[in-house]
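Thread: Modeling a multi-component assembly for a lab meeting

Hi all, long-time lurker, first post. My supervisor asked me to bring a structural picture of a complex we are working on to next week's group meeting, and I have zero experience with this. I have the sequence lines for every component (400 residues in total). Could someone generate the structure of the whole assembly? Inputs are pasted exactly as I received them:
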Amino acid sequence: MHPSSQPLLIVISGPSGAGKDSVIKALQARGLPIHFVVTATTRAKRSNEVEGVDYFFVTRQRFEEMIAQDELIEYAMVYGEYKGVPRRQVVEALASGKDVVLRVDVQGALALRKQFPQAVLIFLSAEDLDETAQRLESRSTEEEEELRRRLDTAKWELEHLWEFDYWVVNRRGQLDQTVDTIIAIIQAEHHRICRQRSLP
Amino acid sequence: MHPSSQPLLIVISGPSGAGKDSVIKALQARGLPIHFVVTATTRAKRSNEVEGVDYFFVTRQRFEEMIAQDELIEYAMVYGEYKGVPRRQVVEALASGKDVVLRVDVQGALALRKQFPQAVLIFLSAEDLDETAQRLESRSTEEEEELRRRLDTAKWELEHLWEFDYWVVNRRGQLDQTVDTIIAIIQAEHHRICRQRSLP
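Re: Modeling a multi-component assembly
Sure thing. I ran the full set together rather than chain by chain. Output:
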């Protein structure tokens, strides 16, 4: 009699400006046996981003090919650019027994839940919408109109919080605590009865 | 917008011989803000046990009074002796905002679930039934017939594992890991969406 739980599909989502990227980087730095999915996108690479690490940056033509050939588990048009989750990466990592961590927007997380009812959906948020706004403003790349659009989206996303499994607040200056909580969630989920491959 | 989760009622259960007592003692030693419920029992105090710490040792008459006055959330006759969970302790601790940890047998855990659907049920087991048997045998107090009875009960209890929320295996020599897992479960449960007092 041994518990042997299925590998987990962990979806980290939440409004833009909640700090998803920083949290995932800090989680990666812990060196756990987790596969972090690299998303494909058609948007322009920011100066601090690395191809194949932060994203796969692909042309619009290539992206639409991926859609046509069903190579994406989930994709969305976000602020006029495509973002999508490559199916093969997820399937292969889960098959090898590894937990998989995905970063998607709220709309994408809810779409994933339909395909993978067993996914663990974590809603990451800043302490409040004001802080979300501050974080968005501090990215000098935002135009005022885009900023407003992002804030409207953040409000819509908050309304869908209850469809998630967990809510983790990423408090300013407490990144380590946020990551600890996510690791606790992963550890706990592996012990959930409904995730055991076989029961005695 | 702040997550504010309800205090948890955490039920640690599992077959006799799984190491519930050691696990709870080690959990207590971590000094977390948790109320550990002291069970009332009519059985004889073992030499290493302390009144009011390990159990409240009460007479059969007093226990039946407690039953009659509805002072117990749950009680059972175990191996010919009463064991029960004092209601006031649990209600007061939860009302003060503290998490509450209870130790009950499997039958009791399933009964508690009916009264407290939101309780977190953790099934603690040894690695296998052989080890359960070894642990029971190492308690020199067991008669052969009682040992067999306990093993039969352990088998029945294992069949009810799937009615729990979590399964934690208390591996020999890895008590700290067992406690870490339980703490992770408590931490994760506080972040579950369904436990939030209010959502935005």
